[in-house]
Amino acid sequence: MFGLEALDLARIQFAFTISFHIVFPAITIGLASYLAVLEGLWLKTGNTLYRDLYHFWSKIFAVNFGMGVVSGLVMAYQFGTNWSAFSDFAGAVTGPLLTYEVLTAFFLEAGFLGVMLFGWNRVGPGLHFFSTVMVAIGTLISTFWILASNSWMHTPQGFEIVDGRVIPVDWFAVVFNPSFPYRLAHMATAAFLATAFFVGASAAWHLLRGRDNPAIRKMLSMALWMALLVAPIQAFIGDLHGLNTLKYQPAKIAAIEGHWENVGDEPTPLILFGWPDMQREETRFKVEIPALGSLILTHSLDKQVPALKDFPPEDRANSTIVFWTFRVMVAMGLMMIFVGLWSTWLRRGDRLYTYRPFLHLVLWMGPSGIIAILAGWYTTEIGRQPWIIHGLMRTADASSGHSATQLGITLALFVVVYFALFGAGIGYMLRLVRKGPKIDEGKETSQGGPGQARTPARPLSAAEEGLDDGETDTLEGRN
After folding, report:
1. CA-based torsion, 464, 104, 189, 129: positive or negative
2. How far apart, in whole angstroms, are the C-alpha atoms of residue 275 and residue 92?
3. What pLDDT is stored for residue 235 in this prediction?
4. Fewer beta carbons within 10 angstroms: which end of the chain, N or C?
5. Are the beta carbons of 172 and 148 closer than 8 angstroms?
6. DSSP single-letter state for residue 403
7. Which pLDDT score, from 0 to 100, does residue 447 have?
């Protein structure tokens, strides 16, 4: 179909579905922790500002969580439908790891999510806060198991090959494989940053429209403190992750750098921009800085970085793609650091909430965290090619063998359904954001009596209240 082979369509289908899915867990991870912080601050200080923000963002969390669960189910089924050879070969490792996620993280979240969303006036404040914290911990436990499985595919260890299948012999080595700590830290931090800029952009949107009140200011301030503190940490984690990748997946680093060959004993330059040409085996139109590649990747001017020509053509990733996805990720990270530093300067002059050029930048940076996450995942997954399990199984050997027609039809259906379903969900979340927090949104009221609102029967209904167009949507005039 369209000149694409069945394997290409299977990969595109998986990439499409996971690109949609990863947006929701990333925001879920960040918002869950943000909600725990807000509720904790309210309990500690008694400041109802934190309570109102908690109730505002809990509605958005409910919608986002629901879409994450739905999109995640599709991912699990694809391992059996499109990648059955992979599941047959490595299922003894990946299957239990994903099962552990369900038994720990999913059950923990399911057990406390209802209390968190609907128990505000039905349980004590301590128990409700405990429920929020448990949901937040559950999202991080889920990240732990998913990243353990994915990292093992990049740096497999703790196994034996028996009768053509992977058999785990050391679960500690399987879980805590060489790349796992770096991937876990990198992804969790990325989720926090993505959420921070989502929250910050929401506040900037309201401030640019004249809705200047303590709640909106608090949203912006907390988001920018997160950017200032965490974005540089993320850069440091990324550097450690790069060193780990250089050690265990040097071909990926060569593709990311667009570096084709070393010259004598000269240190490796850093190519800032260019166009890696896989056919001509060179990076065209390159702009480079001498020796900086060696300094960044080896922390030395005496060592060289492996080059693409050091590896057989069939073992090289598509440098044209990963060269640019990596630079998009880095650009987003540098912009986050810049925004954090600029916010500190504006705080000193008491212009953080009024300087419109800065607010416009924060607004435009709203999707930057998601863009960085997607670019980072494209880099690491495309950079792993041609392997689905590095050094053990090639992607070409992992598919189920469906025809191009079958995969093309299902891909088209996925595109239509996903854009309709999740497009509507994202639009609904943005509509909630536009409403803004309300005065005394969390104030205790009676529920369930005649003529009164009853406890919602499904999670997404936690976000249904307060969407009338004529409703006051912000904390205007609050002192």
Report:
1. positive
2. 41
3. 93
4. C
5. no
6. -
7. 43
Q: Please give the pLDDT value at position 2.
A: 57
Is residue 262 classed as helix, strand or coil in its secondary structure?
coil
Q: Which phi and psi angles does 389 have, rounded to 5°?
A: -125, 115
213 burial class (0-12, 13-18, 19+ CB within 10 angstroms)?
buried
**Helical packing angle, 319-348 and 368-382, nearest 10°:** 150
Distance CA 36, CA 41 (A): 9
Omega before 386 within 30 of 0, i.e. cis? yes
Phi and psi torsions of 410, nearest 5°: -65, -35
Secondary structure (3-state) at 316 = coil
pLDDT digits (tens, 9 = 90+) for 182-222: 999 999 999 999 999 999 999 999 999 988 888 899 999 99
Q: Output the pLDDT for position 122.
A: 86
Tell me the backbone φ, ψ of residue 285, rounded to 5 degrees: 55, 35
Full-model pTM: 0.87
pLDDT under 50 in the chain at which residues?
444-455, 457, 465-479
Cβ pair 59, 441 in contact under 8 A: no
